[in-house]
Design brief:
The protein is an all-alpha fold. The chain has 14 helices and no strands. It is about 75% helix and about 0% strand.
Length: about 325
């Protein structure tokens, strides 16, 4: 049912957005994008697999889950495929949970690792969103948009503060009394708030890697903009795209299609980008993600790591053998 709702929402949003632009101009803009720009952007976006895999490996180690960087990288490529094949980033997360359980790790520990990885990635994204809010406020002459930008920044800061001061001990007691479904989330939050040097070091490096991955995504968008002959300075992309990507992660559409395009058009209006060009930029970004997912699918089919032998700990670090 939820899948059907997402499909409907995406189709409605895309229909409304495309109805508001000149479709012939949109097709011409996409067709005119040079192959070199598309290849460069795709390679740059695909390079996010490196910091994503490294971050996941660090947080797994901090949670006493052995995972080599090589297998973390391969599994991350596979997750890109499942993100597209199952029309949601939850598909990739589900695959990674399955991957860890095949290595004799308990389900709740695998879930904790993925949730911790997701939370750190979200923190890194929100850092860039918050940094970009003052620029968006400065660029906008619309009082309503300014208020929305300020409200978004305050909401993000409030959410981060709540996560920091949430009474985990009381929550753990409630989990033990019956709310077992929340145990992986509590464990993930405990992992992030653990004062031990090992886990704090993993958290700091993980946050830096999360920011690095978002910077690579921004660089890919900048290259796509160059291909569309949009003379946009890099700092404008850095100020606007993280918020666009954040909106696309909200699970109300099919793989972010529709919500991402709407957010791109809205942010493009702040920096002087025409609706048609902003829509073309978002569509090209989505197509790059689809292509990367296809490459991940090829790795999934071809790699022996796609079918790990649960009786052989292939992910065990050499130091732990």
């Amino acid at each position: 049912m939820m899948l059907f709702v997402r499909i409907v929402v995406s189709l409605v949003l895309l229909g409304l957005l495309m109805g508001a632009v000149d479709l012939s101009s949109l097709r011409n803009a996409i067709a005119a994008a040079p192959a070199t720009s598309l290849m460069g952007a795709t390679a740059t976006i695909a390079a996010t697999a490196f910091p994503f895999a490294w971050r996941w490996q660090l947080l797994c180690r901090a949670n006493a889950v052995a995972l080599s960087w090589h297998h973390a990288f391969i599994a991350t490529l596979h997750a890109y495929f499942f993100n597209q094949a199952l029309v949601s980033s939850l598909g990739g997360d589900a695959y990674r949970v399955w991957y860890l359980t095949q290595q004799q790790h308990k389900l709740h520990r695998a879930l904790s690792c993925i949730l911790a990885d997701r939370l750190v990635g979200l923190f890194g994204l929100l850092v860039l969103v918050i940094i970009g809010q003052p620029i968006l406020v400065w660029l906008s002459d619309d009082l309503t948009l300014r208020r929305l930008a300020i409200a978004l920044g305050l909401a993000i800061l409030t959410g981060l503060l709540i996560l920091q001061v949430a009474p985990l001990r009381q929550l753990s007691e409630r989990v033990q009394k019956g709310a077992k479904w929340a145990e992986p989330l509590i464990r993930a939050l405990e992992l992030l708030r653990d004062p031990s040097p090992k886990r704090q070091r993993a958290l700091k490096y993980g946050l830096l890697l999360a920011i690095a991955a978002q910077l690579l995504l921004c660089a890919g968008v900048w290259l796509l903009g160059r291909g569309l002959a949009l003379d946009l300075p890099w700092w404008l992309i850095l100020a606007t795209f993280p918020a666009v990507y954040f909106v696309s992660l909200i699970p109300i559409t099919l793989g972010g299609w529709g919500s991402r395009e709407g957010a791109m058009i809205a942010s493009g209006a702040l920096i002087g980008v025409a609706s048609t060009d902003a829509l073309a930029l978002s569509v090209l970004f989505g197509l790059c993600m689809l292509f990367i997912g296809l490459i991940g699918g090829l790795f999934f089919v071809a790699s022996k790591a796609a079918y790990p032998n649960s009786k052989k700990p292939i992910n065990q670090d050499p130091s732990q053998r």
